[in-house]
Design a protein that fits this description.
This protein is α/β, with parallel strands linked by helices. The chain has helices at residues 15-25, 57-65, 69-73, 100-103, 107-115, 140-145, 158-161, 163-178, 197-204, 216-224, 234-257, 261-267, and strands at residues 3-8, 30-34, 78-79, 88-91, 125-132, 148-154, 185-190, 208-212. It has a single domain, classed as Rossmann fold (3-Layer(aba) Sandwich), CATH 3.40.50.
C-alpha cells in the first residue's frame, strides 16, 4: 500500500474516526497524517490524555520552506501505540483553520515525500485524513495523487447521501484530468438506513470498497478519547477485515497502471 486519502462531502460522516481506526488496526507500519485544513483532532481527541508539545504539520511546513522536510519529518510524529513503538504514528494536523493558508504550499512537497515513504527503511503507508471538501483549501495534490481516494459517506438518510453526489462527480473529474484516474476513487459507507449499498453505489456511480457499522461507543473513544479499546469491538473488527480489499485494490491498480515491458521497449 502507499497513500490512502480519506475525504467527505460535508457534515461529519466519520472521516477522522475511520482513518484512526484503520491506522490502529491494519498490519503494515502506518503514518496517520492529519491533513484536514479545518484542523486535526487526534491530539485533542483520542490522545487527549497525553501532554504533547506543538509538533506536526505546521513545523513541517516551516521546514519544507527551508527544504528540510525529509530531515524534520521523523521529529513531528507521535506514537499511537506505546506497546508497539514505531508501528503506528500520527502526524498531528494544524490546530486552527487560520493556519490552512500557511500549509498550502506544503501539500505538493509533502505528497512527493509521502509517495516514497513506503520504500524507506522501515517503510510506511500513509493514511491521510483530508477532512471535508467544503473547506477553503483542500489538500488537492494529496487527493489527486493518492493511490486510493476514499469518499466517506454516512449511509443513514438521503440528507447524508445527497451531498456526496456532486462531490463524487467533482473528484472523478479531477482524478481524470490531473490525477490517478477515476478508478482510484471509491466509497466507504458508514452505518445503514433505507438505502442499500447497491442503491448508493448507483446514485454516486462509485463502488463501495467497504462498509462500517454504526458503533457509537467505539467511535466515541476514537474521536473523543477516554476508555480503552481491545481491538475486538465491532467497528475495529470491520476495519481490520477491510484491509485485504484495500490492499488488493491498490495492487490491481498499480499492476494496471504500470507500463508493460513491451510498452517500455517501444518507447525506448
Ligand atoms: N462508525 C461509526 N459509528 C458511530 N459513530 C461514528 C462512527 N464514525 C464516527 N462516528 C461519530 O461521528 C462523529 C463524527 O466523527 P468524525 O469526527 O470522525 O467525523 P469527520 O468526518 O472527521 O468530521 P469533520 O469533518 O468535522 O472532521 C463523532 O461523534 C464520532 O464518534
Ligand atoms: Mg475529521
Amino acid at each position: 500500500m502507499a497513500i490512502i486519502a480519506m475525504v467527505s462531502a460535508k457534515g461529519s460522516p466519520g472521516v477522522t474516526t475511520t482513518a484512526l481506526a484503520c491506522a490502529l488496526s491494519w498490519h503494515r507500519r502506518t503514518v496517520l497524517a492529519e491533513c484536514d485544513p479545518a484542523g486535526g483532532s487526534v491530539l485533542s481527541g483520542y490522545l487527549s490524555r497525553l501532554e504533547i508539545p506543538p509538533i506536526g504539520l505546521l513545523p513541517l511546513a516551516a521546514a519544507a520552506l527551508r527544504d528540510e522536510l525529509a530531515d524534520t519529518f521523523a521529529h513531528q510524529l507521535v506514537d499511537l501505540d506505546a506497546t508497539n513503538p514505531g508501528q503506528r504514528l500520527v502526524l498531528p494536523g494544524i490546530n486552527d483553520t487560520i493556519q490552512a493558508g500557511t500549509i498550502r504550499p506544503t501539500w505538493e512537497p509533502l505528497t512527493a515525500f509521502f509517495s516514497q515513504l513506503e520504500r524507506h527503511e522501515p517503510g510506511y503507508d500513509v493514511i491521510a485524513d483530508c477532512g471535508r471538501l467544503t473547506t477553503s483549501a483542500p489538500p488537492w495534490p494529496l487527493l489527486i495523487r493518492a493511490d486510493l481516494l476514499l469518499l466517506v459517506v454516512r449511509a443513514s438518510t438521503l440528507r447524508t447521501i445527497a451531498p456526496a453526489v456532486g462531490t463524487a462527480d467533482m473528484l472523478r473529474r479531477e482524478l481524470t484530468q490531473y490525477g490517478q484516474g477515476p478508478g482510484a476513487l471509491a466509497l466507504v459507507l458508514i452505518g445503514d438506513g433505507p438505502y442499500g449499498r447497491r442503491d448508493i453505489e448507483q446514485r454516486l456511480q462509485l463502488p463501495a470498497l467497504f462498509e462500517l457499522p454504526d458503533d457509537r461507543r467505539t467511535a466515541e473513544v476514537l474521536s473523543d478519547g477516554g476508555g480503552r479499546l481491545r481491538g475486538t469491538e465491532r467497528l475495529l473488527r470491520a476495519v481490520a477485515s477491510a484491509e485485504p480489499a484495500v490492499r488488493d485494490t491498490i495492487a490491481r491498480r498499480r499492476a494496471h497502471l504500470a507500463p508493460t515491458s513491451s510498452e517500455g521497449i517501444s518507447r525506448a
